[in-house]
Task: structure prediction
Amino acid sequence: MEGRSPIQYLWVVLKGMAMGAADVVPGVSGGTIAFISGIYEELIRSINNIRPSLIGVLRKEGLGAFWRELNGGFLLALLTGIGISVFSLARGISWLLTHEPVLLWSFFFGLVLASIFYVAKSIDHWKLNIIVMAIVGALIAYAIVSLPISQREAGVPFLFLSGALAICAMILPGISGAFILVLLGSYKTILDAVHERDLQMIAIVGAGAIVGLLSFARLLKWMFSRFKNATLALLTGFIMGSLPKIWPWKIVRETQVFDDKEIAVSETVVAPWNYPEEPQWAAALALAIAGFCLIFILERLASKKMT
Result:
């Protein structure tokens, strides 16, 4: 989308910050935030613009044409927002995950629950095949979030694959890229590589992420152009299937230590009245309602062409 005003670019930055905040939380997808904030399809198109022919555009038509073809302003604003959020909010969200998990998960549960209605509303016609696609998406997402944690050693091919799968999950609504790394057993290895500045390992994972991102974005663009309703139904299912992962009241059965932090690898969903600690009914309900309402506030703003 060209011709944005500075205020509109600021709005994209804020949406990027929301995506970054979601990506910090294991189990919440930045792709979900991109979808409910109205920038998902533009994000997929912009990623698809990253191709070798851009070099020819730069040589023949100059930097301005290159930047427009890339949709560079949008990507720069979005990445700026994501970066700001990750570096500024990560510590606070991590603190909330440790000390106020019920309240944090309640807000995200309301947010994601409302996004199901938002995405489903985009489907023009609900037919049997569309319903089947939604069910398939829900089953796939539920199966993924229920998988046991892998303990395997991460070799070069596996690290490449981890980068590719994690980045694909990151742009899929309902599936967390960070959680995929935990499932694959490569989360700690990659995190250690970043902290130790192991450039070779970082390059391997980064190459996998680039290949996965460009390949998967092309697949999504093709699916949207050919089977838009079915694709939206599949994404709706992904979001539905992820709900158990972000249910506020869970009992942790098993944890593992990654980078000196305990991460839950086995949890049981329970009713609030069976939660062993204070269920925080009032605050949890208020935050869930706030998250739910936020989706429709974003929709109203989008309808006023603020995107």
User: Anything to note?
Assistant: The chain is about 70% helix and 5% strand. The chain has a mean pLDDT of 77.
